[in-house]
Design goal:
With 277 residues, the chain is mostly beta strands. The chain has 2 domains: 127 residues, Beta Barrel (L,D-transpeptidase catalytic domain-like); 129 residues, no CATH class. It has 3 helices and 23 strands. The longest helix has 8 residues. The strands form 7 sheets. Strands 3-12-4-9-10-11 form a 6-stranded antiparallel beta sheet, with helices on one face. A 5-stranded mixed beta sheet has the order 15-14-13-23-17, with helices on one face. Strands 1, 19, 20 and 22 form a 4-stranded mixed beta sheet that branches. Strand 7 and strand 8 form a beta hairpin.
């Protein structure tokens, strides 16, 4: 039980920005080595205009929603340049540069700031991973011209790797290992999803039962459409019984030892999580 995110009622939110460098999009791109193609922002494909009425009909891209029109991640096991994006105000998501809008990415998620990783950049546009179903959903945000003032684009040097078969979780900080631990993963009937995702939130339950902190990811169970009253979000969290570590035993979440939980709690939101079989 409690392997997937249930309701958020009574849960405190801890928002982390430590370990994220850069405050301007261009500086962050240079530091991450993932600069946009081209240099002239005015030559970027302009976004399709969205009226207020159309905007009101678009779904919000949150862990509670499904965006059927969202294009799937084309390279789900690749590393990224480390760019992470926070909308200072709600941003329209598009199927591709110059294509139709598909959703709206809100500025907050689960009571804290929304941070999502950039997986592809084009002239004046960034493609980001979404917290919504289906797993590996993506959307494009227009970042050119004045739109950049409504976004905070930074660079995170952290990488969380989870190896399902080996039951291992490791954390790197700019290529430097911060540790590796034996963990518990999803059982065969309720497996942990694979691919690249991200740290969506850091939650501190006011009355913790199995873990003092819960870190929802941008992934959902492929078995449960809902779990414990929540949307079936997969996450990282602690576990009071150490005998579970090394086993495939959970409902999809990754159960980690206390020391791993401490390290993970210091990683900024939006940082990349790579889950492989």
């Amino acid at each position: 039980m409690a392997a997937l995110l249930a309701a958020v009622v009574g849960v405190g939110v801890v928002a982390l920005l430590i370990g994220i460098s850069g405050s301007s999009g261009q500086d962050a791109r240079q530091q991450a080595g993932a600069g946009q193609q081209g240099t002239a922002a005015q030559s970027a494909v302009p976004p399709v205009r969205v009226s207020a009425a159309e905007l009101a009909k678009l779904p919000l891209a949150t862990t509670f929603t499904s965006i059927a029109a969202a294009p799937l991640d084309q390279d789900p096991f690749a590393l990224t340049g480390g760019l992470v994006l926070h909308p200072l105000a709600a941003q329209v998501l598009y199927a591709a540069p110059g294509k139709q809008p598909i959703a709206v990415l809100p500025a907050t998620e689960l009571g804290g700031p929304t941070w999502v990783p950039v997986v592809q950049s084009s002239q004046g546009w960034d493609r980001v991973l979404l917290p919504s179903r289906p797993n590996r959903a993506t959307g494009w945000i227009f970042t050119g011209g004045s739109a950049s003032s409504r976004l905070d684009i930074r660079s995170s040097r952290y990488l969380i790797r989870i190896q399902i078969g080996a039951r291992k979780l490791s954390v790197d900080d700019g290529g430097k290992s911060l540790g590796a631990w034996t963990v518990a993963v999803g059982a065969s009937g309720t497996p942990t999803p694979t691919g690249r995702t991200f740290l969506l939130a850091l939650l501190a339950p006011s009355h913790p039962t199995y873990s003092p902190l819960i870190m929802p990811l941008g992934f959902h169970s492929n078995v449960f459409s809902t779990f414990g009253g929540g949307p079936g979000t997969v996450g990282l969290h602690g576990w009071p019984d150490s005998s579970v570590f090394g086993q495939a035993i959970s409902n999809g979440c990754v159960r980690v030892p206390a020391e791993a939980l401490r390290v993970l709690s210091g990683i900024p939101l939006g940082s990349l999580v790579l889950i492989t079989q």
